[in-house]
Design a protein that fits this description.
- This protein has 136 residues and is mostly beta strands.
- It is 12% helix and 46% strand.
- It contains three helices and eight strands; from the N terminus they run βββαβαββαββ.
- Strands 1, 2, 3, 7 and 8 form a five-stranded antiparallel beta sheet that branches. Strands 4-5-6 form a three-stranded antiparallel beta sheet.
- Strand 1 and strand 2 form a beta hairpin.
- The termini are far apart.
């Protein structure tokens, strides 16, 4: 049995840009999107992953292409939390506002902002832990 809540062999990275809440800089942000997968062993389709708490080494290597998606600093290093960070002020960009808040870049892929998103396929099975989310 895996130590990770989420497994998918049909996952992509979705990229977009937001304005940093702290300094106003342009920030490239990413999220994981799974076309199919398993959440705690249950087959699931079409979901994003937010509040990522753990990723396996293979996924970590693939995500190294996006260096601003990284662990949440020393205080949170023990919990393994990951977040998008502003390249200018180094502040994390809260997943709540990216994924759960209406108008957030990953809130709805039907919103006009979705036209600005780019998709990058991931190779192999991804393994991670976090919260799964579905299109509202």
């Amino acid at each position: 049995m895996s130590d990770f809540r989420i497994l998918s062999d049909e996952a992509v990275v979705v990229c977009g840009h937001v304005t940093c809440w702290h300094c106003g800089a342009d920030v490239e942000v990413i999220c994981l999107y799974c076309q199919t997968g398993f959440v705690q062993g249950e087959a699931t389709v079409d979901f994003t992953v937010s509040n990522v708490t753990a990723i396996d080494e293979a996924l970590q290597r693939q995500l190294s292409r996006w260096p601003n998606f990284r662990p949440l600093g020393k205080r949170s290093a023990g919990s393994g939390g990951f977040a998008n960070h502003c390249p200018s002020c180094n502040r994390p960009q809260d997943d709540f506002y990216l994924h759960c808040h209406p108008g957030g870049i990953f809130f709805s892929f039907q919103a006009p902002v979705a036209r600005e998103l780019r998709i990058h396929a991931l190779q192999g099975v991804i393994r991670c832990s976090g919260d799964e989310g579905f299109e509202p």
